[in-house]
Amino acid sequence: METVVVVIYLIAYIALSCILFIPALIVWLINLPFDREVRWLNSYRFWWGRLYFNISPGWTVSAEGMENIDATKQYIVVMNHQSALDIPFSTFIRSQFNWVSKFEVLYIPVIGWLMWMCRDIPIKRGTTKSTRMMMHAISEKIANGKSVLLYPEGTRTRDGKVKHFKEGAFVVAKSNKVGILPVVIEGTFDAMPRGKFGFKLSQEFRMKVLPEVSFESIKDLTPRQVAEQLEVMMRTVHQEMAPEKYK
Fold this sequence. Notes:
This protein has nine helices and seven strands. The chain has 247 residues and is of the alpha/beta class.
């Protein structure tokens, strides 16, 4: 019976996405001549992402630490990666930012189109040219007043725990001389585990925005040292949020 309800929810969400894409297209066309970063459309899709959580009867969201965000600053936002729900859930971060996402996501109808329209940054894993293009695109975003969100684990967790951090996000932060905004989430793995169909109808989602790690505090560290520092920090916070995953 639950599978039937999940299928009905999925059909409803797909239909809603198609409907909401129409005003997104209008906003994009209006915004494009005046703002290459399409901030109006970005704000609209953030509202759209939060809508999925707000209209789902069995889902609850708690978000802490928004006071740690300075709206006048740009950050490299780093977040642990739990499931495909992480992108819409990250819209609860009250700041303008773009995502770095694998190139294949752009081929997904509606979601991929929206990411392309909002000028998110695609990357082809394992290619040096794509990495260079990503670094350049991130520098452009920061220069234009936007933050950028990356997943330092590189891929979704298979057991819900925070995994080993790669250096890429921290190379970017140091090369652009900006602070790092750590965000720890819990709940999206349980709601939609990797490799499983559908999602849980009842789930609590939690987010903690930690204080900024300033550029001044990491400028003399190597990217590997910064990655290790942030990995320990974020895993410790996540372990406090979900101790059962670390037993």
